[in-house]
Amino acid sequence: EGYDEHMVAWGGENIDQSIRTWLCGGRIEVAEGAYIAHMWRDPHNPKTMLRYPIPTKDVMRNKARASKAWLGEFINKTYSFPEYETFAKEGVPIGDMSNFDHLQNKLQCKPFSYYITRFRYVYLDTGLIPDEIFQIRERKTGWCLQRQNGDALPVQLAPCGGGPGGGPAPELQIWHVGNRDLAKPGKPCCSGIMNWNFLQCLDAMNIGAKLKTFACEIGGINSNQHFGISDNQLKWRPEDKKRDACVDFETVSLGDAAMAPLHKCTTEVLPIGSETARSDSGETVPASFMLRNSKIQSTNGACAMAVGSGSEESASGFDFQFQSCDEHVDNQIFHAEPKFGGFRIRVGETGDCLDAAAGTQVLVYPCYEDTVKNMNQVWQIRENRLIWPLPNTEGAAMCADGHARELHAAKREGRFSLETCTPKSGQRLQKDEVRPDGTFLLRDPDNAGCLARGSTNELTLGACDESQRWRELAQRVQVQHVATGNCIDRGSNTPLLYPCHTPRAQQSQKFELVDEPGWVRLRGQWGDNGRKRWFEMCLDHKPQVPLDVKLQRCDAVRKSGASWERINVAIPLEKKLWDQAKKPAPGEPPLG
Q1: Residue 415 has what DSSP assignment?
Q2: How much of the chain is in helix, strand and coil states, percent to nearest 5?
Q3: What does the CA dihedral 187, 189, 195, 200 come to, rounded to 10 degrees?
Q4: What tens digit of pLDDT does each residue of 216-266 get?
Q5: Beta-strand runs (E) in 417-510
Q6: pTM of the complete model
Q7: Exposed, middle or buried by CB within 10 Å (0-12, 13-18, 19+), for 577?
Q8: Which candidate, 12, 5, 128, places its Cα nearest to that of 70?
Q9: What pLDDT score does 208 carry?
């Protein structure tokens, strides 16, 4: 009776066997000195080649059986995930469950709430069953914190979804506190902020770095994941009073780094304060300064700074760019230290230095030890310019400079793209002039026009005429353009009209109409037996470019006007189920 004889192939038996052991009077131990191995299939090794098919439907059915057998009322949480939709909503059977009923009666097995209680340090003290879930809104922009779909990707600010009339909030915008707090007695929850339903936590390396999400370290040991909201600020390592770091949103970069000959240099040194630094050769320069470019256009001027890099190739995690000048921003302040006849230039609070890369580019790079004597990090200030002398030349030098960034709209307004679903102008498309045959127009109530076919089957906002009528093929989850008979397809990069898939839609054509707030929405998708997710996206002809967020000194963040708040606070299903579940009586022995 140690196996479910109705499972097929593999998958789900690990859930079944482990939970049944704990709930039915047993325990699992790891013997000291024992070795446990798992063979992964290697596509390059014929010995590990899969020699029999394993249909995904069988794996998910196995998992559904194990969940139904042992999770009790918590099956409602499991069935809320899209990979279980065929069992929860479509009524696909999971088979005879009487073998589990017989076993549970025979062994007097406990309910799943006992398992949660036994391992509360995993489920409760880490926030995996959170008291509340919420969105995090930045007040100045009115936008919400949103993670990208993947690991170690930058977090962004994007238009908020959810709320009254706003449809469901995007899953990528829903957060809760999580991870154990080692500073509190008993190490209870919580020291970090976690994306609901996903083990992805806010994570940052240091001041000036971009905010990312990374796999949660639920034990609370990783201080890079220590975040909290207090005093209207989203604070990093709030227990570290010396760092005093908060989350700010990035303004648009105005220019990129360049090395230029001194006579063409347009970036000058602006001293900060009166303190000076003196080189071994007697040269005196400002100890702290900003680098301002005279050609890059900006109301407050364009100044160089270290900006969190989105590239894994950056050794320091920073890029040298130009943004609107602000002397309160630490990473716009450079510090000169006498070194090897010139000066090493430290960058703000990053702990890194400017590096000339042999005169080819300006890098923010980890500072070399003095013993290395790397001359790429030895600079001079001449003619009020920050220069790097060219080796083996008489007086020739390159200047730390920049050039304006060409700012192009990422997407053309009027042409539709797929974006995170939010109740914003450009996404609202509502049925109009509905006829008995079920056809209709999709009119934009905020802008003059209707969803229309463009000249080359792309989707655009066009005239509301007879040639732009639509019908919903609800059983196939498709939206069809009546005149052409084609269906909306996500395409490779841009949504378009394409011959309708039959007899049922493949994922790229699974579009549905959402009456409130009025969306044409691409359904979410899952893969790899539920381990991968692709999220709902909506047609949008006025997309807004998300903003990256970064760590900055809290006083600078307050001066910039950025502040944070929780909105659309709700009690999640798993918390409701836990509150209603039967718990072990006081003094009752724990499982195992």
Answers
A1: B
A2: 20, 35, 50
A3: 10
A4: 999 999 999 999 999 999 999 998 877 789 999 987 788 999 999 999 999
A5: 417-419, 430-432, 441-443, 450-453, 459-462, 470-473, 478-481, 486-489, 496-499
A6: 0.79
A7: buried
A8: 12
A9: 84
